[in-house]
Amino acid sequence: MLKQIEGSHAVAEAVGLCRPQVISAYPITPQTHIVEDLGTMVKAGKIENCEFLLVESEFGALSACIGSSAAGARSYTATASQGMLFMMEAVYNASGMSLPIVMTVGNRAIGAPINIWNDWGDSMSARDAGWIQLFVEDNQQAVDVHIQAFKLAEELCLPVMVCMDGFILTHSYSQVDMPEQGQVDQFLPPFEPRQVLDPAAPLSMGAMVGPEAFTEVRFLAHHKQREALDLIPRHAAEFQSIMGRDSGGLIKEFDCAGAETVIVTMGSVIGTMKEVLAGMREEGHSIGALTIRSFRPFPSEALIEALKDAKRIIVFEKCLAVGMGGIVSMNVRMALQDFPLHVHSVIGGLGGRPITRKNLRRLFEKGLNDQLQETHFHDIDMEIVNRELEREKEQRQSGSIAENILHDVGVVAAAKTI
Amino acid sequence: MTQLPESQQKVKFYQTGTLTVGNRLLDEEHRNVQATMDRSNSLDSGHRACQGCGEALGARFAIDAAIRATGNQLIAANATGCLEVFTTPYPETAWSIPWIHSLFGNAAAVASGIAAAMKAKGREEVRVIAQGGDGGTTDIGFGCLSGTFDRNDDVLYICYNNQAYMNTGVQRSSATPGAARTATTMPVGAEPGNAFNTGKSVPLIAMAHNIPYVATASVHDLHDLEMKVTKAMGVHGARYIEVFVPCPLGWGSKPGDTVKIARMAVESGMYPLFEAADGELTGVTKIRRRIPVDDYLKQQRRFAHVFKPNNAHQLEQLRAIAAHNIKRFDLLARDGEEL
């Protein structure tokens, strides 16, 4: 059914259609609307046989899901930013115990300085935690991928994060085709755990494992994630046959075949990019784009297939490995190491910095003219940066960098960017 | 509340002189869980607890009582700690009930999740226990524990309190008493051992959550422990029992003295036994024959320094704590009062 709906409301409805049995969540911007809606739905009896736990922290939220999932209940939570960091010990624990929990991440920057706006710092902090990470481009995908996430998680016994850009998707209204309950039931069978806490057949879960087995345990976690590389496209095809639309898969190409330059990115920014790139192609530039939908497992082979004939790759990412550079680009470079390709890393949109058609156009032109550094910071004002470096040189007690920069920018100018 | 067998409500047999209470003094139907032929066995032999481990004793009696009270419809979530480590390195397990260990600080939340799952699946006859040591309860697991209390989730949390982080090598926790030697509060300097006026009483904090049942118990009185666990399992909602479990390794006591030391802690007033319902104190276990605090302390090397002349003020402080407990909880029997 077509609806004009906020991203968070759409996700809540989609999760409700998946018949979750335990939902446990702690509020954090920009995830709040999702769990508020689910709370109301459970309280109103719109989701049958479901318990909603109002916990004291994100650590408690995911820990409760660990318990409920181990006890055989389909379990869901949602978080963002600091919340992800606060639950991190449980994040690793859930995957280590093979618990198919689904968690929405309303992607948001990590402080300090505290910042509530969008980037991928939170999901990236958990990229090696053993969870499958699926990034969505728009709210239709957010709905569809959540439904696929439960199936994927439960088939593999692995937890899945659905990563959606905070505010840009969670708080934006758009048209979404909401699946019917019957369609979801047809796609997603009831949860059958591989092992479960049950007095009828007692077992011990989560005990200690020493050096004699730890490597093999970890190898199998890796192996299972790699299995998802086959399963994700298969589920996407099955989903498409029921719902009649393509909204899954490992990667998605946008006029990528034959293009000399390919922009590689994830999440919602492709929406703006598509418009810019269409204009540039009309002008005769050989430029296309590709989004990575499954960041974990990383779809190396699919990327090679899509990118091997390109000449220049520009990875646009809303995250930064401080002291190293781009994170997505590191992964792309590793996947493409056998090909003589130039991979540029562009860091942009940090902490919600607007990514506009205008500044993207400027960036892509630089790329086409070979004016990009290996690691390029998109839309950065180096004069402000240099003035702060000067201040630090001049005096030892130079104060807070963030505060100094805001003074420098000026309150009025700063307000215009958000 | 579940009606308790008369034996568990009233039986207070003591052998003259030794202060022990023995099953053999009771009628067969009144003997405790461990003495019956068809007893459950939550914790099998072969686990790796130290000799004289109070926690192993406390856990076995507590969980066995819970098994009996629930008709074996029981799942346990365990915090990281001695109890987790000595019972389960894969592929072995000493547990005969479904059991999960997740993390150090989340046992209460994991248990809440299990209880929620059981409710969602319409299997509310399956009951849930969370358990951990004092570190996993009073310190790192405190947030989750308070959350479980706050929501009044149907979980019994049992804390086995041995007053320090024993699994990591005897470091101070917020349940460590003043003056006690631990690896992080060594008996050096002007104020040797753990600082006074620190720490917290989680039983009292649990009461402040107005949860339906809170109790303290001790491994020297296993009938009382069984009674309290049975009572707790007869109630729904969040419940908390703290069991006093001496640790020979951490306390520097003789393994054979675990039960004796636990009794001395209670009889000296250092560890008050009480019950509370809905935030109100409902009963205390009176001290049967008060013993000097010094006698309790002398059993343990962790307090050895308080008997040095220049640490006399510490001994005084410990005596004052016992006196305060006795007054606060009204632990002494009045003349003619039957115990």
Structure explained in plain terms:
The complex is a heterodimer of chains A (about 425) and B (about 350). Chain A is of the alpha/beta class. Chain A folds into three domains: about 240 residues, Thiamin diphosphate (ThDP)-binding fold, Pyr/PP domains (Rossmann fold); about 130 residues, Rossmann fold, CATH 3.40.50; about 35 residues, no CATH class. Chain A is about 45% helix and about 20% strand. The longest helix of chain A is centred in the middle third of the chain and has 33 residues. With about 350 residues, chain B is an alpha/beta fold. Chain B has an eight-stranded mixed beta sheet with strand order 2-1-3-4-6-5-7-8, sandwiched between helices. In chain B, strand 7 and strand 8 form a beta hairpin. The longest helix of chain B has 17 residues. Chain B is globular and about 65 Å long. The interface between A and B is large, with 44 and 44 residues. Strand 9 of chain A pairs parallel with strand 2 of chain B.
Tell me, briefly, the overall form of chain A: globular
Largest interface, with Cβ-Cβ < 8 Å?
A-B, 44 and 44 residues
Total separate domains of chain A: 3
CATH architecture of chain B: 3-Layer(aba) Sandwich
Give Rg of chain B in angstroms: 19 Å
CATH superfamily of the largest domain in chain A: Thiamin diphosphate (ThDP)-binding fold, Pyr/PP domains
Defining traits:
heterodimer; A: 418 residues; alpha/beta; Rossmann fold; 3 domains; 6-stranded mixed sheet; 16 helices; B: 339 residues; 8-stranded mixed sheet; 8 strands; globular
Question: How does the SSE layout of this entry go?
Answer:
The complex is a heterodimer of chains A (418) and B (339).
Chain A: E1 2-6, H1 7-17, E2 22-25, H2 32-43, E3 51-54, H3 58-70, E4 75-79, H4 81-86, H5 88-96, E5 102-107, H6 121-125, E6 132-135, H7 139-156, E7 160-165, E8 173-177, H8 181-187, E9 204-205, H9 211-243, E10 251-254, E11 261-265, H10 270-282, E12 287-292, E13 294-296, H11 300-307, E14 312-317, H12 327-335, E15 342-347, H13 357-368, E16 375-377, H14 382-394, H15 401-409, H16 411-416
Parallel strand pairs in A: 2-3, 2-4, 4-5, 5-7, 6-7, 11-12, 11-14, 14-15, 15-16
Antiparallel strand pairs in A: 1-8, 6-13, 10-12
Helix pairs in contact in A: 1-2, 1-7, 3-5, 7-9, 10-13, 11-12
Chain B: H1 6-10, H2 54-70, E1 74-78, H3 82-87, E2 99-101, H4 107-120, E3 127-133, H5 134-139, H6 142-151, E4 155-161, H7 202-208, E5 213-218, H8 222-233, E6 239-244, H9 248-251, H10 258-267, E7 274-277, E8 280-284, H11 293-297, H12 312-328
Helix pairs in contact in B: 2-8, 4-6
